[in-house]
Structure formats: structure tokens, C-alpha cells
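Re: weekly structure request thread

Next one in the queue (143 aa):
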Amino acid sequence: MMTTSELDAFLAAQRTCRAATVGGDGAPHVGALWFVWDGTALWLYSLTRSKRWAQLRKDPRITVLVDDGHAYGELRGAELTGRAEFVGEAPRTGRPCPELSAPERLFARKYFELDELPHDGRHAWLRLTPDAVVSWDFRKIPG
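Done, posted below.
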């Protein structure tokens, strides 16, 4: 298990997560996304015309997996579970939204090395404030 500071550093450093949503027939859908972690919530920048977006509109339950490592002793990761919240305009065109200032700044720096996020009019924000977090770090296993 990771400590809080280890988890924060891990989620800040990783670039891609896999988000699992639930379809109307109960079948899961899993897709890769870019994200940022603000220490409390995972912010997902999703296409608004995606299967994920449509499924979350009907059922906001979501599980996100972030993992890393190649050899067994290098494996580490975190699973965050909760309900997705839609934040800001959809699709996002850049209208002022104070709630999105911090995640957009983090996202712009992490993925584009910019101070301001370029908006494409196709994506919008989902916030996952997890109800549960499970983490692991096999690098801590002795021997």
C-alpha cells in the first residue's frame, strides 16, 4: 500500500489512466484517458461524444485504474472508485469557471507544457472524488 504522499506523487507523475463505466445492460466499458490529481480529486478530460460520457450521464459510477511497472517487483498502482461529477460547460470552450482553474492549469502543464489549457470544443471535465482508494507498490516487498 502507498502512503498518502507516495500516492500523491504517483498520481501526479502518471500520464494515463483507465476508466471503467457501466452500460445500460450492465456490461463494463473501459477506456484510457489523461487526468490530473489535485490531492483530493481525480480530474478526467473526456470527449463529450464518447461512450464513457453517455454512460456516466445515465449512471455516474466509475472506477479508475492508474498503474505502472514492467517486472513483477516494479508493479504499483491505485484504483479509485466513486461517482463522476460533470464540472463546467460541455463541451468546454474556455468560459470562465473558477472551479476548473486549478485542474486546467495542472493539465496544461502536465500534457502540453503550457500555462493555459487550449480548448478544442470536444472535451469536458469529470471529477472523481473517490469514495474508496486501493493502492499497491510491489517495490516495497522485501527480497
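The chain is about 20% helix and 40% strand. The longest strand covers residues 76-87.
Next request, please.
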